[in-house]
Design goal:
The chain has 8 helices and 7 strands; from the N terminus they run βαβαβαβαβαβαααβ. It is an alpha/beta fold.
Length: 250
């Protein structure tokens, strides 16, 4: 589905981002990998290359507009265009009530999840306009639809990201750019494992509402992301698409 296409992936060093990078590279994409952890990006890029894929590690922080601009520019300079982007970087916590949260935790959650998505889209969109269109997918969460037990600022941030997605889709739909949000259910990622280690009750809370009564594997999310980033979803834009084991159905 992705032969000849360049895809930028943020939060690519582990979990959903890394699984998606492997999945898209196996389908012909040149993947541009962005995350803060350079060593993990280098390792992932080497693994993709060893399997015959094309991957370019570009360390950076999505909360930095300059970092995002540099990665987008590198993608275009290296592969000729930016055809799709998976803005997957996110950060959150759980187990602390709203009035007990500190300002620095609130700021970090909002910066990574909302400002990060904002930074990415405002540089990705011009690059796509220059080449007659593209596709953007932002990782939201079931927390973007209802209170999940995650920290209140995380719930607010993921709601905001869906709002940004819909507004951007409306603004650029007539210029060939489709923009959607992925409403992800509880997934067994490095970040989630760290939260569960500190707050074991989160695992039970995370799957109790799901019809399938389990966490997702990152590859299951990657497969849905691939469809939304590909031409196979050509009539889907401005959507918040649930991949959540049925949480949204109840």
């Amino acid at each position: 589905m992705f032969t000849g296409k360049t895809v930028m992936i943020t939060g690519a060093s582990s979990g959903i981002g890394a699984a998606t990078a492997r999945h898209l590279a196996a389908q012909g994409a040149a993947v541009v990998l962005m995350a803060r952890r350079e060593e993990k990006l280098e390792k992932l890029a080497a693994e993709i290359g060893a399997e015959g894929g094309r991957a370019l590690p570009c360390p950076g922080d999505v909360t930095s507009a300059e970092d995002v601009r540099r990665v987008v520019d590198t993608a275009v300079a290296s592969f000729g265009s930016l055809d799709a982007a998976f803005n997957n970087a996110g950060w959150g916590t759980a187990g602390v009530r709203l009035h007990e949260l500190t300002d620095d935790v609130y700021d970090q959650i909002m910066d990574v999840n909302v400002r990060g998505g904002w930074n990415c889209m405002r540089y990705q969109i011009p690059a796509m306009l220059a080449h007659q269109g593209g596709t953007i997918l932002n990782t939201s969460s079931t927390a973007g639809q209802f209170a999940t037990g995650a920290a209140a600022p995380y719930v607010a941030a993921k709601h905001a990201l869906i709002g940004l997605t819909r507004a951007a889709a409306a603004e650029y739909g007539d210029q060939g750019i489709r923009i959607n949000a992925l409403v992800v259910g509880t997934t067994r990622t490095e970040l989630m494992e760290a939260v569960i280690e500190r707050h074991p009750e989160v695992e039970t809370q995370g799957v109790s509402r799901a019809i399938q009564r389990r966490m997702a594997d990152p590859l299951e999310i990657a497969r849905a992301a691939a469809w939304l980033l590909s031409d196979q979803s050509s009539f889907v834009t401005g959507a918040a698409v649930p991949v959540d084991g049925g949480c949204s159905a109840v």
